[in-house]
């Protein structure tokens, strides 16, 4: 691959999967294929071939598959919805493990979902059952099991606020155990699970509210759309519809016919600056743009700025760099890097580099990527 704009996951080079290993995976119940391209498993629709792909449709198969691969020290890449992954054009020299479990179970006060359950199906089912709490996270692509990985969030809510516990496979010891959210290091678009092969999420449990009302609505854009006051609780279905409407307007609900959604969602996280850093950046912005209102939000470790605002003000408008480019900023949202149909990973990475460097040159802020980057040796 070309020079990466950002650090990538470590590419572990090792002996490739053997015919014997393939047989063991099949005996464990995995569906094994050797003709899978990562472009077909990811929402950015880029990424070269996987050496092998083992699809696991039950939790026991998933656990056995990972135990076999880990004890044989085979490089693995866990993929569920593929909506937060940017895999290089060389593909992945190892085994892609597809999480395809899908059971969802409602209990009084909480819902339990297997890791591969489609997240938005879980939200829709909860809303359908008259249960509140999850509705602000409507429309986020991907799986239930990946939600704690980067502590998914939208419209003022993070999954951390509703997570009851998570069942993990410890990939070092092979043990399976329930873990409370306090042990997951959940923060803004991060957790101890992100950029780590130490554990696999098998199930998640999320708290629900039984009175048919949403969690308090706080996000300004959402309260405005709903005509609600901050902190108001509304029928869950009404909040879900409003969230989906807002997300569609930004290309943030997957739609195969709309290239603005061929993305990994927001490509950069919103930068969080210390007071000292903020003062310097605000000065840079003022000298570049004059007196402007800079959107700022209080964050745990400082002040959060809007990456989308910085990108736009650095001169990268929606649709940048133009119609003929294979990878462009979404025409609906500057924070999404999109594949217009023929892009390769290299095109997306080149665009990411240009945007990152442009923002840094303009305002001195280094944007960090949100998706997990995977670079690997070419598959044999
Ligand atoms: C259009 C669009 C809109 C989006 N909007 C949002 C948003 O509003 N908020 C937000 O937070 N994110 C958003 N995202 C990002 C993405 O949808 C979420 O991060 C989602 O949770 C990823 O789930 P996935 O199953 O697709 O994970 P994948 O892309 O398959 O995997 C992502 C990472 O998690 C790991 N992983 C996956 N499953 C497991 C598991 N069971 N156990 C351990 N590790 C695992 C993978 O190895 C990989 O490192 C958006 C993406 C798109 C394409």
UniProtKB/TrEMBL annotation:
Location(s) in or outside the cell: Cytoplasm
CC annotations in GO: cytosol
GO BP terms, alphabetized: cell division; cell wall organization; peptidoglycan biosynthetic process; regulation of cell shape
Protein's UniProt keywords contain NADP: yes
Reactions catalysed according to its record: UDP-N-acetyl-alpha-D-muramate + NADP(+) = UDP-N-acetyl-3-O-(1-carboxyvinyl)-alpha-D-glucosamine + NADPH + H(+)
Pfam families registered for this protein in UniProt: FAD_binding_4 (PF01565), MurB_C (PF02873)
Active site: 189, 266 (proton donor), 370
FAD-binding PCMH-type domain boundaries: 45-222
GO MF entries: FAD binding; UDP-N-acetylmuramate dehydrogenase activity
PANTHER family: UDP-N-ACETYLENOLPYRUVOYLGLUCOSAMINE REDUCTASE
Protein name: UDP-N-acetylenolpyruvoylglucosamine reductase
Organism per entry: Rhodococcus rhodnii LMG 5362
Protein encoded by which gene: murB
